[in-house]
Design a protein that fits this description.
By secondary structure, this protein is of the alpha+beta class. 25% of the residues lie in helices and 33% in strands. The strands form 3 sheets. Strands 1, 2, 3, 4, 5, 7 and 8 form a 7-stranded mixed beta sheet that branches. A 6-stranded antiparallel beta sheet has the order 9-10-11-12-6-13, sandwiched between helices. It has a 3-stranded antiparallel beta sheet with strand order 14-15-16, with no helix packed on it. The longest helix has 16 residues. It is globular and about 80 Å long. 31% of the residues are buried.
Amino acid sequence: MVVRSVGRKEMNDTPAALKAMQVEFDKLDKQRVWDKTTVREYDDVAAEAKRLRKKVHFGMIFGICGEKGSELPEGSPDRKFKGRYVFQGDQVRDEYRQAATFEELSSAPATLEASKAVGALGLVDGSECQTCDAEQAYVQAKLGGTETWVSLPKERQPADWAKYRRPVCQLKLALYGHPDSGGYWEAHCAKHLTSQGFKAVKNWPSVFYHPTYKLLLMVYVDDFKMAGPKKNLARGWEMIRSGITTDDPKPVGKCLGCDHKITCRKVNGKMVKEMEYNM
């Protein structure tokens, strides 16, 4: 439950932390979250934008390291270092070095009530509840809006960038930290789900129902939780994963910080299933 922030000195002195940072950067770099082939001098991009009267944004990418499950005993498999590279969304400037303005795309993750409703459906006879996580969710969506240029951390810049005074390249995908990234990911996710026959549930943000397969799905950022007839779940995940990269679906366990435990008890002579939520 507790992610402990790791300072730069500790990170540099801890091989596991450095490895976590390298793994994360390489993943984003391979996905071309930023396009290094577009590298240019900052001053040239700004001058061109002014000349063409075109709005552009400039920002920076920086790394942060944390230790997940830091309250757990040493050696626990759930206690590990996690690296992140994010967009510094509070320090974005335009071509005139003025504070940037954004589209203010709002995201609306599913509520806890929605999560419990999905869990309840999974308790119905013949039904089951399963979960999975989208892998690096935001960067599965393209970044729209104003053209955005970023500087990479000095230690992550290619050697041939040394010839530039202030190298920048284009940000192509909705990286964490960008003020509009959540909105672009949510729109990307909803577009794919509806293309597969899922219908948005009215007045319940990020909740979808598939009328053919009787599946109820809630999406909380990168957490997917779905319930319905057990025989239809595999087909439901197949449709979701045809356009969204996730880990393998599994019976509901930990989701949104809660451990889900299914128990049975006798009510009026009949065995019924109940779900407990433990923090």
